[in-house]
User: Which sequence fits this backbone?
């Protein structure tokens, strides 16, 4: 079960980076489109979790719903914290000057271009990496998931 929505989001971000979109409505429209791809990926992730739980049960004979879900939840929380810290670090690294005491600070063109790159190229690269990991490293495909379901149904029928 491969999910192409990550790849679609990556392509949209790459197009945005290459086009250097200056029209705010076009930028927002493209951002919404990539967001739809990531929204689909977020929904499909929950199916992956169920498939992983079933796969573990086939391999070990033990249903580990709580362990699989808590590992996923913990990993997601760590990633969200790291992403929040990365945003602040990137702003500092590119020379962003924050306003103090309500003054108006005009960012340099280099800073504005770097922010644009951080909002388009960085996600494109990360989504491409995620897509490649899911495509080449994720071990479950439809055939394997269907086989796991047959095995579990047989086990449950013989225990029932």
Assistant:
């Amino acid at each position: 079960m491969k999910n192409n929505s990550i790849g679609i989001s990556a392509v949209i971000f790459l197009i945005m980076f290459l086009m250097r979109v200056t029209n705010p409505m076009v930028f927002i429209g493209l951002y919404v489109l990539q967001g739809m791809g990531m929204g689909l990926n977020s929904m499909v992730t929950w199916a992956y979790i169920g498939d992983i739980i079933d796969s573990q049960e086939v391999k070990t004979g033990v249903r580990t719903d709580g362990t699989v879900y808590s590992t996923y939840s913990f990993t997601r929380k760590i990633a969200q914290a790291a992403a929040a810290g990365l945003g602040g670090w990137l702003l500092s690294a590119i020379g962003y000057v924050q306003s103090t005491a309500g003054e108006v600070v005009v960012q340099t063109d280099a800073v504005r271009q770097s922010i644009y790159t951080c909002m388009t190229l960085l996600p494109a690269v990360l989504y491409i990496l995620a897509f490649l990991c899911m495509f080449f490293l994720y071990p479950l495909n439809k055939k394997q998931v269907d086989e796991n379901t047959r095995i579990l149904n047989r086990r449950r029928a013989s225990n029932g």
The chain has one domain: 5-159. Residues 24-60 form the longest helix (37 residues). The two ends are 30 Å apart (CA to CA). The chain has five helices and no strands.
